[in-house]
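Appendix C reproduces, verbatim, an entry submitted by the partner laboratory led by Prof. M.T., so that reviewers can inspect both the input and the predicted structure.
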Amino acid sequence: MKYRKIHIFLLITIISLISLACKISLGGNEPNAETIPVSADAADSVQSIIDNATITDAQNQTIAFTVTEEQVTSYAAQKFAENPDSDISNPQIYLRDGKIDAYAVYTQEYFDINMHITLSAIISPNNELEITVDNADLGPIPVSEGLLDSISSMIDDTMTNTLLPASTGFRMETIYIADGMATISGTLVP
């Protein structure tokens, strides 16, 4: 009987230590749509689509290009993977009903926290892409209004400077987000 108690105690101790060694998921929102596949080809195609749209339609001074959820998700996954300091992984970016719904996992030491950000994208009167964070949750906790503004600013700068830097001479005129695609159109300015 004494040995049985020792075995049970050791078993409980081992299970407890194993659970401490594993990451703990703090939950949060998860995508309620199908998982978007990630591929290097889809990620690489994003810049190629932009470059080819510029070259193809330059004579008409009108440019339009479309990116898919798979391309945007793959591009984001590639950028997060390239940054060794990134705490974000497993992005899933849905382009539906005029909104960008971005999900990812934020990792801090032993904790994995699901993130969800809902974004709106418009073209400003200055013909610049403006991205606004409508809602954000970190795990089960909504993000404060001040942090939403900071995230909006950071995403806005990243999108504008990474995908369409001002030096390209591209003036955006419309953005349409629906059915798993985002289409941006505009004109070239000399």
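The beta strands are 24-25, 62-68, 88-96, 99-108, 111-123, 129-138, 141-142, 170-178, 181-188. Additional entries are available on request from the coordinating office.
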